[in-house]
Amino acid sequence: MSGLPLLSLAIWVPILSGLVVLLTGADRNAPLARMLALIGAIAGLVVALPLYSGFDTTTPAMQFVELSPWISRFNVNYHLGVDGISMLFVILNSFITVIVILAGWRVIGSQVAQYNAGFLIMSGLLNGIFSALDAMLFYVFFEASLIPLYIIIGVWGGPRRVYAAFKFFLFTLMGSLLFLISLIYLFLNSGSFAIQDWHQLPLSLAAQKWIFLAFLAAFAVKVPMWPVHTWLPDAHVEAPTGGSIVLAAIALKLGAYGFLRFSLPIAPDASHEFSGLILALSLIAVVYIGFVALVQVDMKKLVAYSSIAHMGFVTLGFFIFSPMGVEGALVQMVSHGFVAGAMFFCIGVMYDRVHSRLIADYGGVVNRMPKFATFFMLFAMANAGLPGTSGFVGEFMVILASVKFNFWVAFAAASTMILGAAYTLWMYKRVVFGAVGNRHVSELTDISAREFLILALLALGALGMGLYPQPFTEVMHSSVDELLRHVSISKIQ
Amino acid sequence: MDMQKVYLLVPLAPLLGAIVAGLFCRLIPRWLAHSVTIAGVAISFLASVYIFKDVAAGNMFNGPVYQWLSSGDYKFEVGFLIDSLTVTMMLVVTFVSLMVHIYTIGYMRDDPGYSRFFSYISLFTFSMLMLVMSNNFMQLFFGWEAVGLVSYLLIGFWYTRPTAIFANMKAFLVNRVGDFGFILGIGLILAHFGTLDYQAVFGEAKNLADASITLIPGVGWGTVSLLSATCILLFIGAMGKSAQVPLHVWLPDSMEGPTPISALIHAATMVTAGIFMVSRMSPLFELSDTALSFVIVIGSITALFMGFLGIIQNDIKRVVAYSTLSQLGYMTVALGASAYSAAIFHLMTHAFFKALLFLAAGSVIIGMHHDQDIRNMGGLRKYMPVTWLTSLIGSLALIGTPFFAGFYSKDSIIEAVKLSQIPGSGFAYFSVMAGVFITAFYSFRMYFLVFHGKERFGLEHANHADPGEDAHDGDHDDEEVAPDHHHGLAPGQKPHETPWVVTLPLVLLAVPSIFLGYVAIESMLFGDFFKGVIFVNTEAHPGMTELSHHFHGAFAMAIHAFSTPVFWLAVAGVVLAWFLYLRQPQIPAAIKSACGPLYTVMENKYYFDKFNEAVLAKGARLLGQGLWKGGDVGVIDGLIVGGAVRVVGWTAALLRLFQTGHIYHYAFTMIFGVCALLSFWLLRA
Question: What's the gap between Cα A338 and its chain centre?
Answer without folding.
Answer: 10
